[in-house]
Amino acid sequence: MGVEYIEFSHAKDGLEQQLCNCASSQNLVEVASAEHLRHNAAANLAAEWKLGVKEWLVLACVSLLMTMDAFNATVLLPLITPLGNTLWIEASYLLASAASQPFSVMLAAILGVGPIALGAAVLATVGTGVCSGSMSLACLVPGRFVQGVGCGGVIATSLLMIDEVIPYPHQARITGYAFQTRVVGATVGLIFGGLLVDHAVWTFYASLVFCALGLLVIPFAVELRTYRRIAKCKACELDWQGAVLTFMGMGCLLIGVNWGGILYEWTNWHVLVVLGAGAASIIVLVLYESLWSVHPLFSSTIFSSIARTMLYLSSLLHGFLLSCHLLNCALYLRLIQELSSAFAGLGLLTVVSPALVALILTERVRHLRNPSTFPWMVRIGWLCSVLATGFFIILDDSTPPQVWVFILLGAGIGHSLLISGHHRGVHHIHQPNRDSEHYSASSILMYSLLRTWGMCIAVPVGGAIILHRIVRQEGAESSHFDFQAGEAPLSQQGRDQKEMLVGGFHMLWRVMVGASALGGVSSLFVK
């Protein structure tokens, strides 16, 4: 009896365990089926949504405005040859663009996107008009600054338009279309800038066409009547101080880097005061954002994980590398290879145009839209950038066209992968939050801001590296170095100046390889 009881007990326990396992398996199947049905329902709902008239108007408006910004940023690259002018003309535009983006976002939170978008387009038009009528550098630089303020506001409000009108599952696709038009604008700017070398003022007249079209479409795309996304009584809680400190700190540091070792010695009080003011502003910014700001510009929710932080660091470094490649490759083609402006603009297309192909493929190929794919796109992009920038070191005045074309194309492929990977990445990590009590810049806006700051940093840093090498070798003031494209004399002095310039470029290429390697390391933490 004892043995029979034990056998019966074991049989009973086994039967209960089997029934429990069957029930658990059935529950898992039901949960999986429900999850699959929900996924299919969400996919069907996403597939059913289509652009309406309002959405098409917003897309047309955003596309025109982003095309205008890209055109303005690249149209002067094939035209500029003196190094000093390059620094001020491009730096003023990019500095104003980076500084105006957070202010535009906060003003849009109070007054609405429509009035700020229209005001930014008007400012861009005014700046373009000043540039078209400028007769000297002293008039051109302020015009470029005003133009940059307007274009920075245009970028910020364009992204806000997409965020307000387009449902979140489709924002990556629509933003991808806008980025494609931005690449087209950069391409057209390089071509126009090269072809209109003898009539440079027409480059700004062409920009006025984009300004006019944008001003025409904005009233139909967005609501211009004043409305409030957040209460006006909380306007003072927005991070105005953080935006001002960021502008002051970065501006002073960049000016100090531009002055040091070129206009003044590094120990000169002019350089020390400017650098000290910039460093103090950055320290105060960090303390203010950490301790006192109610709605910080650099919110901890945006940098909530290592993966997010590394993605934003990667975007900052990519902006630095992209600006260095475009600006300094233009100088290399004009001053070292002695190409005409038209051919220099066409040569730069090898850096810009692959991004359009990559964005189109990312949209068309389903596998490339997978969230697990974008980290590898960023990593492969940085690998291509490291290799291509490393090959830049062999470039000199005797490099044949078939060599430098493929080197620039390799850099362009790296940039195309980085643009597509960052674009998908910031939308993948973005968590939509409409709570007005916790209003802060979204991930895509932070990506745009940091990328623009990276491009801005590259201009004075790259120019300072080249000019510092020239001044150190020549033992004279930088103003004494007056090397113009196509005017290099056959004398020994002309050859020596070209050799010094090649040496300056080689030093800059090494710095860019280091920046690319740092970007590659940061991409290892992106997931």
From TrEMBL:
Superkingdom of origin: Eukaryota
One of the record's GO molecular function terms: transmembrane transporter activity
Example of a GO cellular component annotation carried by this entry: plasma membrane
Membrane disposition: Multi-pass membrane protein
Presence of the UniProt keyword Thylakoid in the record: no
Keyword Transmembrane found: yes
Keywords annotated in UniProt: Membrane, Transmembrane, Transmembrane helix
Location of the protein in the cell: Membrane
Transmembrane segments: 102-125, 145-162, 174-196, 202-222, 243-263, 269-288, 309-333, 339-362, 374-395, 401-423, 444-467, 507-526
Annotated protein name in UniProt: MFS multidrug transporter
